[in-house]
Amino acid sequence: MEAGIVGLPNVGKSTLFNALTLSKAAASENYPFCTIEPNEGMVSVPDDRLERITTYITPQKVIPATLKLVDIAGIVKGASEGEGLGNKFLSHIRQVDAILQVVRCFEDDDVIHVSGNVDPLADIETIEMELMLADIETLQNAESKASRNARSGDKDAKLLLNVIEKCLEHLEEENPLRSLSLTAPEAKAIKAYGLLTAKPILYIANVAEDDLEGQSPLVQKVRDYAEKVNAGLAVVCAKIEAEIAELEAEDRSEMLEAVGLQEPALDNVARETYRTLGLQSYFTAGEKEVRAWTIHKGFTGPQAAGVIHTDFERGFIRVEVYSLDDLETYKTEVAIRQNGKLRVEGKNYVVQDGDICHFLFNV
């Protein structure tokens, strides 16, 4: 699963990406098109449950869940018509599973805003409109072919045409497709088009150093908007987070304490991204490793097993499951089993967030 970081130029997008991935994406604060190709990086998803598990099961290594992030160059008004680097950037967004929009919520005379003034809602509207215009163009191009095929009586083509028309009507009323309810067959019919506004979105308010809790009126505007459209919001000062990310562990703790943070704000960004993507973790735990495995919410036992290896899914027999609460109560897996807390689940079991699993399979 991938999340693409987008935003207007000079909102702190690449600074945030660098901090998240501890990389050095090429960036110049006042040059809008410095990130020509999307930079990619992996980020760990902080999860204190891993540490709690290792209190009772001592492994050789601990492996957290990870996410792939893509830093996509700044979008400008008119991108859907080729302005800036235009459709090239839109094609990069098309490849990701969720959008992280960095929104500037700080004033700084030394960092020029591309529109001349700081207005986070206007920034959100600009990008949303460009994505909607790109989706309209995609669907209009697909509509004529779908119409021809539908006239032949093809059942799938008729469904596709109906969905395209439904989506176009929604978009032309200036509504993103993520706010349109589609049936499972409808969603499947248009999935291949990679429609931009159908992707889930997380807003990241990039704040000033004196507003780490995001209490300014600028942030409140974004918070209210995110609630209105049922999107997530994370507040971060990319400048401070970039400094924290470069420090050694001991120095990092001191700086966090100095600025009044319990953890890097980036930890919350990673967790919120995970949630936005509709993901959750289950764990495997043994002497070799304690590991978090990433799955979609709703995955069954065989599907979850398949994340480890396709053979596990193909030859799935059953899964033995217990909870972290059980481990903290009974201290060992042996005691969990002896007290009847180890559950044996079959192929229809829906794996829950935080389950600790042992899969039994035969191929």
Plain-language structure description:
It is a single chain. The protein is an alpha/beta fold. 42% of the residues lie in helices and 20% in strands. It is built from 14 helices and 12 strands. The protein has a 6-stranded mixed sheet with strand order 2-4-1-5-6-7, sandwiched between helices. Helix 5 packs across helix 6. The protein is flat and about 65 Å long. The model is unreliable at 24-36 (pLDDT under 50).
- Portion of residues in helices? 40-55%
Helix and strand string, N-terminal first?
EHEHEEHEHHHEHEHHHEEHHEHHEE
Number of helices, counting only DSSP H or I runs of 4 residues or more? 14
Strand order of the largest sheet: 2-4-1-5-6-7
First and last CA, distance: 28 Å
The main β sheet shows up as: 6 strands, mixed
Gross morphology: flat
The count of strands amounts to 12
- Poorly predicted regions: 24-36
What's the pLDDT, averaged over the residues? Answer: 88
Radius of gyration: 23 Å
Q: Topology, pairings included?
A:
Layout: E1 2-6, H1 13-21, E2 39-44, H2 48-54, E3 61-63, E4 66-71, H3 86-94, E5 98-105, H4 120-151, H5 155-172, H6 184-190, E6 201-207, H7 217-228, E7 232-236, H8 238-245, H9 249-259, H10 265-276, E8 279-285, E9 289-296, H11 301-308, H12 310-314, E10 316-322, H13 324-330, H14 333-338, E11 343-345, E12 356-361
Parallel strand pairs: 1-4, 1-5, 3-9, 5-6, 6-7
Antiparallel strand pairs: 2-4, 8-9, 10-11, 10-12
Helix pairs in contact: 1-8, 4-5, 5-6
